[in-house]
Every structure is written in structure tokens, then in C-alpha cells.
Amino acid sequence: MKTHDKYAVTDPKLRPRYAVLDPELTLGLPPKITSTTGMDALTHAVEAYINRGNTKFTAECARKAVKMIFDNLETAYTNGSDIAAREQMLIASNYADLAFTRAYVGYVHAIAHTIGGLYNTPHGLANAIILPYILEFYGDIIHKRLAELADVAGVTKPGQTDDEKALAFIAAIKELNRKLGIPERLEGIKEADIPLLIERALKEANPQYPVPYIMNKKECEAVIRRLMV
After folding, report:
1. At a CB cut-off of 8 Å and minimum separation 6, what does 1 contact?
2. Residue boundaries of the structural domains of the chain
3. Which pLDDT score is estimated for 10?
4. Which of 121, 159, 165, 170 could cysteine-pair with 150, CB 3.0–4.6 Å?
5. Mind listing the pLDDT tens digit for each residue in 205-229?
6. Packing angle of the helix pair 217-227, 123-138 (nearest 10 deg)
7. What class has domain 28-227?
8. DSSP string of 9-25?
9. At what angle do helices 162-179 and 143-153 cross, to 10 degrees?
């Protein structure tokens, strides 16, 4: 509480043996919570999929999660009583969990954690806003992976290159955020806090997460500044 430092704790023993996925328990969730937790699950799947620690199993789980989220999140958001969409989102979230607890997350979460700790920003909201900026930052390093997810999400057209598909996937995430009422930028980031945000985010991400590319301080600062209102 004194430092407002939010950081990840990882241990195989923290993985639950069972998960009870009861969609009826989610019917009362407000649209805002539905949207941000849904995008949090998408972030789990995407970061796991592009990481260097991705495996055949985590890749399969991530792809399933991405497809189910693109197919169902907007419906669950606009019609919270649609129990089929709620059920699919629970299953998608579980698949994403199976992926990221093994292949880990990356800079989206590292930056979201430090912003959340410092400003009490809801975690899912921070992830949703940060995700497309980090994917753009990586550039063509992850385009092949994103192209695969774009195909899974159904946002590609015949004849597109991997680069075109990757950009289409990022655009689809931005559009989904827009439909879910999620802003493009984060309010409340203070100029004076930027050095601390950079320090904490980079300390968490490296070497803990097997990210596609290791970000330096200037790059991290550039991403954070893009998030600012």
C-alpha cells in the first residue's frame, strides 16, 4: 500500500486443479465489467501466443480462446442475459488461462500492472487499452503469429499477406474496444511518474516473461506516452 507497486507472483502451485464455469453466476455482471474482463482474457491469449515460451498445447488453447472471444464478447456485452455467449466467454477465459499460465504474458501486463498499482486503474481496462499499442510496437517480429490469430478470429480476406493480416488483427482489436465502449487512451498518467512506470514495467517483464523482443527504456517510454491523454 505504501509503494503502490503491483507485481506478478508466479508458482505452479498457484494453478487450480479445477475450474467451475457456471455462466449463471455471470448474468448480473455490468456491461463495463463484461467488456474489460473479456478483453483481459483476449490479452492473456494473445500475449501467450506471441511469446517465445509458446508450445503446441498453449498455442491451441490461445487460438480457441481468441476465436471464442471474437465470436461472443460483443454479444455478452450488449445482451448480458445471453447465457450461451456468457458460457462461451467463460470457456474462452479458461482456455486463455491455460495458455498464459504456461507461456506467460508480456509487456501489456507489465505496463498494466504498474499503472494499476500506481493509479488503481482496473486491470482489464488497462490491458484492453495497452494491447494494440504493444502489438504495434513489436512490428513485423510478431506478424506471422498475429496473421495466424487473424485467420482464427475471422478478420482476414483471401490473398492477404501475413503483414496485412497482422495489421487487420490489430485493427480488429481496436474496433472491438470501440464497440465495447473502451477508450483509446488511459487517463491519469502523470508526467512525473513516467520514470517509475518504466522502471517497474521493465523489471517485471525482463527476465520473467519470454517476450518476442526485449524493450529498452526509451521504447517503453514511447509506448507509455502513446497511452497518455
Report:
1. none
2. 28-227
3. 77
4. 165
5. 999 999 999 999 999 999 999 999 9
6. 120
7. mainly alpha
8. ---GGGS-S-----GGG
9. 60
